[in-house]
Design a protein that fits this description.
By secondary structure, this protein is of the alpha+beta class. It has helices at residues 2-19, 32-62, 98-112, 117-123; strands spanning 20-21, 26-27, 80-83, 90-94, 175-180, 196-201, 212-215, 242-246, 254-262, 278-286.
Length: 288
């Protein structure tokens, strides 16, 4: 028993000496000068890493432009979106029940408020149609902020919310607004031909969709709204819209609708990117 206690005391003494040895003044087996050299090494090492990171970020920031992306992964064809916003791109309502489509009306009113004619006249230019609104910089002198062309709400006619403040929803003839995603520098047409939107039903619903009306006429995104120069350079840019009005869609049934952009410069979407240049949504109009 005494031998065991002696061994325990000896082991305990060795651990204490390892942690702090009063004879050699070593902490965890190292002297103060040794610990100082180690700390100095790691301090210099991490300062070097930090300075390399800062230098790399500084050089990278020098290559960036405040107004235009230095590297732009341009899509062959931009995507499309619809308004009003709906869960999972499903627009379903009952014409005789105001509460079923009231949210769509509020969403459209909010979305179209910047398109009011009075606001557009104050902020944007009345441009010449069917030609690009080019605003080049002069050498190192930036032509900023760049001007933008008016897109007046009244151009949407029956889908403007002015002549019919319910956008046709109360009569079972809903309006859907379509916009093309912004891409800096994109030129979506040539030879004076503007891109235009066409909508149709998926094959199984071909006899349900009925006739359609497009606003502006022919559903065009006029060339005068392009190119887009970016949010910072073109602060008042107003995105052009196309409205599609469903005049006599079948009631009480789901209709799968697809709208796509048609252009002589933009490539058609492929199976790899089904949302390029098109948007699909489901429409259901109930009569009761």
């Amino acid at each position: 028993m005494s031998g065991t206690r002696e061994e325990d005391r000896k082991g305990s003494s060795e651990w204490r000496d390892y942690f702090w040895n009063p004879r050699t003044h070593e902490l965890l087996g190292r002297t103060a000068s040794s610990w100082g050299l180690i700390l100095l090494f790691y301090l210099v090492f991490y300062l070097f890493l930090a300075s390399m990171f800062v230098l790399t970020m500084y050089i990278m920031l020098l290559t960036l432009d405040d107004y235009k992306p230095t590297w732009q992964d341009r899509l062959a064809t931009p995507g499309m979106m619809i308004r009003p916003k709906a869960d999972q791109l499903e627009i379903s309502f009952t014409a005789s029940e105001t509460e079923s489509w009231d949210g769509f009306i509020n969403n459209l009113n909010s979305f179209l408020s910047p398109y009011d004619d009075s606001y557009q006249v104050q902020t944007n230019d009345n441009c010449s149609p069917d030609q690009y609104f080019i605003q080049e910089d002069s050498a190192e002198v930036r032509n900023n902020p760049k001007r933008s062309c008016q897109f007046n709400r009244t151009m949407l006619e029956e889908c403007s919310g002015i002549s019919d403040r319910f956008y046709g929803y109360s009569r079972g003839q809903p309006c859907i607004l379509i916009k093309l995603n912004r891409v800096i520098g994109m030129l979506p047409g040539k030879d004076g031909q503007s891109p235009y939107v066409t909508c149709g039903a998926k094959r199984e619903d071909g006899d349900k969709i009925g006739p359609l009306a497009y606003y502006p006429p022919n559903g065009t995104f006029n060339l005068m709204y392009y190119p887009y120069y970016g949010k910072k350079a073109q602060v008042n840019y107003t995105q052009p819209l196309v409205a599609v009005k469903f005049l006599n869609a079948s009631l009480n049934t789901d209709i799968s609708v697809e709208c796509k952009i048609n252009s002589n410069t933009l490539a058609e979407g492929t199976e790899r990117d089904k949302f390029a240049g098109r948007v699909s949504f489901k429409l259901r109009i109930n009569d009761k």
